[in-house]
Design goal:
Blueprint lengths: L1 H20 L2 E8 L2 E7 L1 E4 L4 E5 L13 E8 L4 E11 L2 E10 L12 E10 L3 E9 L25 E11 L2 E8 L6 E5 L2 E5 L1 H4 L5 E9 L3 E12 L2 E2 L11 E13 L4 E10 L9 E8 L5 E17 L4 E13 L8 E9 L5 E12 L4 E12 L5 E13 L1
Amino acid sequence: MRKSLVVLVLLVSLVRLEAQEGFHFDFHGFVNPHYYADSRSVVGGREDMMLFYPKPIVRDAQGNDINDGWQANMLAITARLNVKITGPDMLGAKTSAFVEGDFTGATNATIDNLRLRHAYFTLDWGRHKLLAGQCWYAMVTHEIMPMTNPLNMGAPFHCYARQPQVRYTYSLDGLEAVAVAQWQLDNMSQGLLNGVPTSSTLFARHSILPELNAQLRYRTSRLFIGAAANLKSIQPVVNTAGVSLPQQLHRSLSYSIFGSYRFEEGFTVKVQTLLNNSLYEGCSLGGYLMYQSVDGNLVDFRDWHFNTVWLDIERNHGHWRPGLFMGYAQHKDEGPMPAIYGPATVFGRGYDLDYLWRIQPRLTYTTQKGLSFVGEAEYTYAGYDEPVGNLRLSLSAVYAF
């Protein structure tokens, strides 16, 4: 009852603000019940609705693979509410803001709780545009996001995350130069906190520097292409409990080339390649190894790499809209380390994989009035020492308003 009163008071306040101060509020959202079934256990999140890849073969005393076997679930946690605010001109710029939430929770432990997805404002001077707040992680490239319906949206081949950030865009005759400084919240780095491996924002906060991203883009009415470079700086060893630990920074560079083209026949093709050095925070593959010398004093870090490419094709008009996503990732050998180092501690996602590929056809029927139905078959094959595959079958409906 108390929450309902708070929402009611907030809505009344927004209406009064719109009437008195010249702000306009545009509310939207959707409800998205989603059923999915997997042929084996998977590495994922949010009740495995966020699927990355199948788990490896693990045999019991009788030699049976305990990760083999069908399982199914249904969730509606991706239900979403958002509001776009258009305000009066300020500082010579057009102003707007966007706030959006869903119910996936910030972690698996808080699933079903209201979670902040986006919360940012923009100042638009025409050629110059400034965005500040929580928005898409810079390596996501949301303009070319795969249109698959499950929560992973092409991950781990395509990044999928949001981060607090400041983003500046300069546009001129179709060319765009973008610079982003971003921090961490829900998607955190991994490291040693008081000697214990964990995920925390402290590893990025202690590095002082934000994660930096630079992009160059070109767009027309049908074509969109670009390239990005991403620099992440973290302090992988943090001491908050009086433990004497070495404090060194680790920096990693990742690169991306991307593009999309919308054909007159009504099909859109999207493609991206990633040189992924350590994009764990972006729900992608990669990470780093931490080596200590035999005496435990000297610490060194080394990224382990994935080269990733994916393609998404979709018909974007009519009631029936077929689509196909395909992705491939190859683990690159990090090479030998000097003999003075002891065993490595591994941080990241996918270190035990040599390669990963996925093929994912889908078919959407849309009423073009806010209601649509989607069926997908998603086959992901993981290159462990003993390779395994997982078939996911999913059915979902979207009621958008």
